[in-house]
Amino acid sequence: MGFVELLEVASMPIIQVLLISALGALMATQYFDNLLSPDIRKALNKIVFIIFTPSLVFASFAKSVSLEDMISWWFMPVNVGLTFLIGAIIGMIFVKLLKPNLKVEALIIASCSSGNMGNLPIVIIPAICDENGGPFGARDVCRNNALSYASFSMALGGIFIWTYTLHTMKSRCLKHKALEAAEIMKVPNKEFDATAESLLLKDSDSQNTREVPTSTYIGDSENQIAVDQDQSNVSKKSESFWHRIVEVMRHFLAELMSPPAIATFFGFLFGAVEWLRSLLIGENAPLRVIQDTLQLLGNGTIPCITLLLGGNLTQGLKSSSVKPLTLISIIIGRLFLLPLIGLIIVRLAANFGLLPVDPLFQYVLVMQYAMPPAMNISTMAQLFDVGNEECSVILLWTYSAAAIALTAWSTFLLWLLS
C-alpha cells in the first residue's frame, strides 16, 4: 500500500473519535440543554464501567483467546510496566527543569507515565481492522484479535494506574495541601508576630525554669528521654511505612476486583478451557444466547466512551491555569519521545524472538506508548480536590495534539509492519 492509502487507513479511526468526541462536547453545553452534565457523565461512566465494558471484554476474550495465546502474550504486561516506568522518568526530568508547584508536579508525572490503555485502544485499534486494505489480515479475525489485545491492555493499564499513579497523585497532593494549610496559618502582621515571638520566648524561659529545678534531669535521665524519643520516631516511621504498604495493596486488590478486571479473568478462563468455551461459543452452543447478549451490550461501550471523552474535555476550555511550556513539555514527552523509545524496545524484542509473529500485536505494543494521558488522572484530581482545573487543561491540549500524533504514529507503524 502507498503512503496515501496507509494515511487514510490510519486517520479514519481518529476522525471517527474526533467526530463523536465533538458531539459529546456539544452535548455538554447549554445548546443541547446540558445532556451530558457532570452528574449525567458520572452516571453514564458508571454504567460503562460496570456493564458495557465488562460485557465487551468478556465477549471478545471468550471468543478469540486460547491458552496458547495467553502464554504468547507474556511480553504485554512487561511492556505496560515499561511505559509507566519510562514515562515517569521523563516526567521527573521535566519536573526538575520546570520546577512547578506540587499539584502541577503530580499532574506532569502522572500525565507522562499513565497512558490511556483502555478506552482509546478499544476504539481505535479494532477500527483499523474495519478499513479496506488493512495490513493485518481478514477483517473478522483482525477485529477479534484487536479487541482481545485492547481488552488485555485495559486490564493491565488499570492495575498500574490505580496503584502507581494513584500513589504519585496522592503523595504530592497531600504535600500540597499541607503547604497550603501552613501558609494559611501564617499571619502577615509584623507587630503581631513580634509580640507573639516575645511571648513565646518568655513562656519558654518560664517553662525551663519550672521544668529544671534540680540537676536530676542531667545525665542518665536525659539519655533515657533521647532514647525514648528515638524509639517513638522509629515506631512512627515503621507504622507509616506499613500504612503505605496496606494502602497500596488495598487499591491494588480493589482494581483486581473491578468489573473489567473480573471480566478479563473469566474471559481468559472461558477462552482457555475448551468445555467452558463450547458452552458459549459456536452455533450449537447451549448458552450462546448469553454470548450474543454480552456482545450486544458491549457494542454500547465505544460510542459511550467517546461521548464521555468529549464531554469531559470541555472542562479544559474554562481555565488557562497551566503554563504553555508545561503543556508543550507534556505533549512532547508523552506523544513523541515516549513512543520513539517504545518503538525501539518493541523492535528489539521482536528481533530477539520475544513476541508473537502477529504484526497487530507489535502495533498494539507500540501504540501503548503513544496514547495520551489516562482520563483516570482527572478522577484522581477530583478525588483529592487538587489541580482539577490544571488537569482539565492538560487533558484538553494533550488529546487535541494526540489527534495528529496518533495518526502520524499509526501511519508509520502500518507502513513499517505491512
Question: Can you characterise this structure?
Answer:
- This protein has a single domain (3-183, 245-417), classed as Na+/H+ antiporter like fold (Up-down Bundle), CATH 1.20.1530.
- It is an all-alpha fold and 418 residues long.
- The chain starts with a helix and ends with a helix.
- The chain has helices at residues 3-27, 38-64, 67-72, 75-98, 102-113, 119-130, 139-185, 190-211, 220-256, 259-272, 274-280, 288-298, 301-313, 324-351, 359-370, 376-384, 388-417.
- The protein is globular, with a radius of gyration of 27 Å.
- The model is unreliable at 189-197 and 199-223 (pLDDT under 50).
Sheet/helix structural class: mainly alpha
Give me the CATH architecture, please. Answer: Up-down Bundle
Proportion of β residues? under 5%
Number of structural domains: 1
Overall geometric form: globular
Q: What is the N-to-C order of secondary-structure elements (H for helix, E for strand)?
A: HHHHHHHHHHHHHHHHH
* Major pleated sheet: none
